[in-house]
Amino acid sequence: MGGILSSVRTKRASRLAACTAIVLSAGMLLAGPASADTNPAGPHVAAKPAKKFTQPSLQIPKRKSAYAATTGVASKPRFDLDKDGRSDLLVREPDDSLRLEVGGTVPNPTVANSYGSFKDLIEPGDIDGDTNPELLVLSATGKLSLYTGLSATHYTDSAGKDQLSVNSGSLSWSSNGWNAYNKLFSPGDVTGDGKTDLLARTPSGDLYLYPGTGSVTGSPYGDRIKVGSGWGIYDQLVGASDMDADGNADVVARTPGGDLFFYPGSGNAAAPLKDRVKIGSGWGIYNQILGMDDTTGYGDIVARDAAGTLWFYAPNGTGGLGARSQMGTGWSAVTLANTGGNPTFGKGDLMALDGQGSLYYYWVKGDGTLADRQLISDVGGWSGANIGFASSLRSDDRYGTLLELGGGHLFVGGRDMGAGWDAFNGIAGVGDLTGEGNGDLLARGNNGHMYLYPGNGQATGFYNRVDLGAGWNGFNKLIGAGDVNGDGVADLLARDGNGHLFMYPGKSTPGFGNRIDLGGGWNGYNKLATPGDMTGDGRADVIGVDSSGKAWRYDANGTGSFKERASLGAGWNTYNGIY
């Protein structure tokens, strides 16, 4: 495999403990007093919610070949499927469909999803030199797969209109173990050998280079080379292609504070990046940054703001950027390929149960707001139900899973997982805590011990539990659904009786790092939940509902705490719980 990480999953000696009790929920699910001998009540039924949204607009700038002519060096577009000389945008829509955006008046076609439920899409460019771009697909469990043969063909339909047909390619190579990294990105060729390379960052901030081999049938990358440490200070890492017209690919990096830095490629595999140069500030207004070439002859930068507007930045040929121009609107709800933030996998949804027992569903729109609620049960059909809403219990499904406790039994998506739940007084779930890519469960015993139950990735059972220690009975709320502190690993939030909220950072191995006190006053909220990433930056956010029924959103700031709260409106006291 040329140094590519192979599967690092350790075989467990014990079988799945499918009937051992633990459950994952974004709002703490309280284990009731039901006896394990009680016959389980049948699970309630909820309709699968639909996600409706308006297609975004896009106008890709036309290529300005004069820029390249001044230097004789042109940055080739890395993802130009229709061969018009400009990069195209590959987009995942809220309903999980894929669409190719080419700009202009051509309808943007749906792309057949041959890739499954993925965590990230990376556009490495043309690896084997056949003029067609390849695509890297990262799964939740850390499998990296290479697809070749992607293309888009223009044709004229019966009405005389220009249309586009897309070939999504075929699998040519895959490798496991890439969940050791929280970010993979491909700037192009940074080593100067003409082959496209891959960069990978660990949660601890170490950056590695995987030099390209030029192969799409064998391993496309060679043995890794450590580039350096301290790269965890950046919340956006962008493969920017060649911004300074020296023939080497470059990297752009942003801090959570909004400072933007340019790392020129050196053409030397032993030290592929030169010293950084600050090229901007105030970039914290953007939730995602990506490289999009070629419209100017150099590697271009596109940034999405909180409202979902895309902005285009043309480089000046020396590593800096010119004035921005608007490129499109309505992009907040979609997931763009090749972005600079840490990829996420897990829920981006909220469930709410009202006083009549009716269940409602909200999905996050990526701009800090929630889509209009949808009734997904019979009116009053969930009266008295004790529910939770899981994050990424299935490694092949990035959406939340509805959970229910009834008669001492746990139902996961309607499946009876067994009895014995009176052994626990609080259950929460935050995503993957073991580094294997599967959603895991946390359960607090009546003895105050916290137990971790590693998920099997299929929502059908759990591996043997791990005792994480005692002293957890001091908390009255346990929540979480993803990464709060920006290292790409799921974290736990816990509120104590004094109203202080603590973050327990995940480590990708069972257990937590040293807790961080996020401050007091959180007992002012009678409901707390984590719907995942509400603002499109890849970090998990929190919703709190106060006694007056007003809901407030707390955005994770990427350094382990939250920004100033923002209002989500009133009327939330109609709900008995949010999850």
Protein model, in words:
- By secondary structure, this protein is an all-beta fold.
- The chain folds into 2 domains: 57-336, Neuraminidase (6 Propeller), CATH 2.120.10; 349-578, Tachylectin-2, Chain A (5 Propeller), CATH 2.115.10.
- The chain contains 1 helix and 42 strands.
- The strands form 11 sheets. It has a 4-stranded antiparallel β-sheet with strand order 3-2-1-22, with no helix packed on it. Strands 4-5-6-9 form a 4-stranded antiparallel β-sheet, with no helix packed on it. A 4-stranded antiparallel β-sheet has the order 10-11-12-13, with no helix packed on it.
- The longest helix is centred in the N-terminal third of the chain and has 5 residues, at 65-69.
- The model is unreliable at 1-27, 31-39 and 65-73 (pLDDT under 50).
Counting structural domains, the number is: 2
- Any guess at the CATH architecture of the largest domain? 6 Propeller
Please provide the count of β strands.
42
Q: What is the average of the pLDDT values?
A: 88
Which regions have little confidence, pLDDT < 50, spanning 5+ residues? 1-27, 31-39, 65-73
Write down the overall geometry. Answer: globular
Strand order within the widest beta sheet: 3-2-1-22
Structural class: mainly beta
**CATH level 3 topology of the largest domain:** Neuraminidase
Into which percent range does the helicity of residues fall? under 10%
- How far apart are the first and last residues' alpha carbons, in Å? 43 Å
Cα-atom radius of gyration: 24 Å
Largest sheet: 4 strands, antiparallel
- Percent in strands: 35-45%
CATH C-level of the largest domain: Mainly Beta
Query: With helices defined by DSSP (H or I, 4 residues minimum), what is the helix count?
Result: 1
